[in-house]
Design brief:
The chain is mostly helical. It is built from four helices and no strands.
């Protein structure tokens, strides 16, 4: 039997959004160095994830465009290529986690 109630999940999501919205309305929020460093860390994490995802998306789009002109029905190399790129990006490299763990040496404010 599941302990998850859909209404509780929805209510938690609503409270999260309202709490974040109310916190971001505070004009003095980013005057403190701790909050500035947290915002920089979040932006760095998003940027790192985009830098890893963009080549994969480019290959997928190029394969999609090539599929308009070439029949890929019998070929399996395209699915294997995309699958292996996703595997390498998500399971092997773990670059976002690695670079975010190095952020404490670049900006040690969050460790104090």
């Amino acid at each position: 039997m599941s302990n998850f109630d859909p209404n509780a999940i929805l209510r938690g999501a609503q409270l999260t959004i309202v709490g974040a919205f109310r916190a971001l309305q505070n004009p003095s929020l980013f005057k403190y160095e701790h909050y500035q460093q947290a915002a920089i860390a979040v932006c760095a994490g998003i940027l790192i994830r985009l830098l890893i995802a963009l080549p994969i998306v480019a290959v997928k789009v190029s394969l999609w465009v090539a599929a308009l002109f070439v029949n890929f029905e019998a070929a399996t190399w395209d699915d294997q290529l995309v699958g292996s790129m996703d595997f390498v990006a998500n399971s092997v490299l773990q670059v976002p986690f690695f670079l975010m763990s190095l952020m404490r040496y670049v900006t040690p404010t969050l460790d104090h």
